[in-house]
Amino acid sequence: MTTPHTGAETGADGQQMMRVRTTASAVSKGTETLVHAGRVPPRVAELMAAPHQLGDFPYPVSYGYLTVGVVDEGPAAWIGRRVFGLLPHHSHHLVTPNDVHPIPEGISDHRALLAGAAETGLNILWQSPPYYGDRVAIIGAGMIGTATALLASHLPLERLEIIETNPVRRTFLTRLGLTALAPEDAGDDCDIVIHTSGSEGGLGRALEIAGDDGTIVEASWYGDTEPQVALGSDFHARRLAIVASQVGQIPAGHRARRTRSERLGAALSALHDDRFDALITGTSGWQDLPWLMDELGSDTALATATLCHVLDYEEGS
After folding, report:
1. Pick from 81, 47, 54, 83: nearest CA to 66
2. What's the chain's average pLDDT?
3. What are the C-alpha distances in Å from 22 to residues 34, 110, 192, 280, 314?
4. Quick check: pTM over 0.90?
5. Burial letters for 50-84: b for 16+ Cβ neighbours within 10 Å, e otherwise?
6. In this structure, are residues 107 and 231 in contact, taking their beta carbons and an 8 Å threshold?
7. If you average pLDDT over residues 184-206, what whole number do you get?
8. What is the pLDDT of residues 258-312, one digit of tens each?
9. Element (H, E) at 242
10. Over the stretch 98-153, which tens digit does the pLDDT of each residue have?
């Protein structure tokens, strides 16, 4: 394997190139397993391409967008700095300063990998912002749902419930100081229901527990699956709204006042909450990535238990 070097070239933005030596990357299980299985619909292939992806869908493709590393070549002001970037699972990256964001002091490399989940959660909360005293439910406690719940737990809500089918996951959430309930025990009359489970049943339950004039924020991506949505019955009579949230764009309510870099900076700052460490449920050496993707994309115990799985790139890993 040849290690790249910066040379004298500049990037498309005119900035000097720099090299990032990867220390760790993480698998975003929901999206990356769909990519691994070749389930990206052609009509959204361009939208779903990772910022520094190599190859085209369906495959072969080098994917991934949760990476931390150290700048070891490039502008003097950046040498030695730890950075997070939307970069694939590679040992080195040639980027410009605009492609990465410095990691704040006090946040470990592994926790910094959760910046992508925190950024997605922040985007979800910006999509349809809860008001003071609102009743909010989050359906699905995967990496995105749990990260969103941790962010929302800092808001002055009347009620915040995380709805999860897995009893082991509910116990895990309770230990984080969150209220976790089985779907049949969920409170109703919610102002906002955030759906992150990626399942037809979860979306159906979201429609049931939303109150009149309530909003369902759909944050799941289904790939080439077409879920059946119960828009008969009382959907229209109760004036429910389903809105899409997708982290590729800042929601319209904030788009004129926040850049994507500012959003990522806010997400990294949110990681000062020590509870985010609990979302890291496994660690492997980078060489295990092919095996890991097969495991996470199948009905395995590892797939069920995984929130964020880290790949280490340090010597000896």
Report:
1. 83
2. 93
3. 24, 12, 39, 18, 8
4. yes
5. bebbeeebeeebebbbbbbbbbebbeeebeebbbb
6. no
7. 96
8. 999 999 999 999 999 999 999 999 999 999 999 999 999 999 999 999 999 999 9
9. strand 241-244
10. 999 999 999 999 999 999 999 999 999 999 999 999 999 999 999 999 999 999 99
> Tokens for 11?
């990037």
- β-pairing, 82-85 with 54-55? unpaired
| Tokens (6 digits) for 154 | 């800092």
Q: Six-digit token pair at 41?
A: 């619909």
**In what helix (H) or strand (E) does residue 135 lie, and over which residues does it extend?**
strand 135-139
Closest CA to 195 of 236, 170, 162: 162
**Helical packing angle, 115-127 and 260-270, nearest 10°:** 110
Q: Which residue has the tokens 């419930």?
A: 161
First and final C-alpha spacing in the chain = 17
Strands in 159-163's sheet, in edge-to-edge order, are 179-181, 159-163, 135-139, 190-195, 210-218, 241-244
